[in-house]
Design brief:
two-stranded antiparallel sheet, 2 helices, mainly alpha, 88% helix, rod-shaped, single chain
Length: 149
């Protein structure tokens, strides 16, 4: 119901404007002649066209500047997100480097422990070899020393 009343109101406005223009042209033509009425009507039509063009250009400029502002805003957001992802990438690299350093340290400690164990085993093996190679002396019943292996 509200929409119908608005549509009727818009039609009423158009009819009123046309009646006003008709009365203005009739009055001008009766007072000053047809040429003056035609010039005034042409001038009014020119002013209306110029005003409509200016309004269209203004709306177009507003849309273009709004789009440019939105583009700049989106570009700033993109750069901000790019910086955030770069920061996260750097953090990931740092964490990976730290983890790799810890693994290298653990490997070095493990290798050192294995080397220590092997060195200990080698010492034990060498000790056993030396003990096997060392002559054993024993005292016999006569009190003399004799070597045995």
């Amino acid at each position: 119901m509200y929409q119908e009343s608005r549509r009727g109101f818009g039609g009423l406005v158009v009819v009123c404007v046309l009646v006003f223009i008709g009365l203005a042209v009739w009055w001008l033509e009766s007072r000053f002649g047809a040429n003056v009425a035609l010039m005034v009507l042409g001038g009014a039509l020119g002013v209306i066209c110029f005003t409509a063009g200016a309004l269209l250009i203004s709306a177009n400029t507003k849309a273009v500047l709004g789009n440019a502002a939105q583009f700049n805003h989106d570009l700033a957001n993109t750069e901000r997100y790019r910086q955030m992802s770069g920061r996260e990438y750097a953090r990931g690299e740092r964490e990976a480097f730290s983890a790799r350093a810890k693994l290298d340290l653990l490997d070095a400690k493990r290798i050192d422990a294995i080397a220590q164990q092997r060195a200990g085993l080698l010492v034990d093996v060498e000790r056993q070899k030396m003990e096997q190679r060392q002559p054993r002396w024993e005292v016999d019943d006569t009190g003399a020393f004799s070597e045995w292996e």
